[in-house]
Amino acid sequence: MIIRKFDSRAELDFYAAQYFVDTITTKPTATLGLATGSTPIGIYEKMVERYRSGEVSFAQITTFNLDEYVGLQPENEQSYAYFMKHHLFGHIDLPADRAFLPNGMATDLAAECSRYDAMLAAQPIDVQLLGIGHNGHIGFNEPDRTLHGGTHVVGLKRETLEANARFFASMDEVPKQAITMGVGSILKAKTIMLVGKGADKAEIMKQALTGPITTDCPASLLQTHANVLVLLDQEAGRYL
Asked: What does CATH list as the number for 2-233?
């Protein structure tokens, strides 16, 4: 595990974006695992800048997103499909048929989970981008006595609902379920990039990276992976 701390979020975002650009330059057909939420927005902005300056093309890559809410249409502004189009996909030359997210509107959610796992198995992820929840969740793999290896439907914990409520008009509108890649799928990525920003992530980062490996903190399972790159601003890395 490599831990890098940055004096500013701008420097962190620049480094992370450059890492993805270098990956694509080395392997134009790379498969990237992508995340949503506030953490990767600056990274995506820097990636778009690189594309617009002609430094990189995304035309041959494939992407898989970690998760999607159950019951939100892709056109809904709070869906992760909309988020990705708004922050990244709509600004680069990635073909739409090479950008994959779980289908939260599927009539058979179990079949959708199996479909997504089959695609992941056929096209292993080269670099998986992760944020971390305040309770240690990665993707929507919430703390529990047991964790799922593959893609599955999950009921969101109250602390996760509260954290996501800021994106919705009210708590009642926050979806209660999501489809998420499982921890087993995440750990199959060749490289995992874990990003933490802000003082509110300092304690959980310390717990995840130096505490016991336990399903009570899903991110702690990243300690078992051979190639994890942790990128932190000074506030998130204050205890490390």
From this structure: 3.40.50.1360
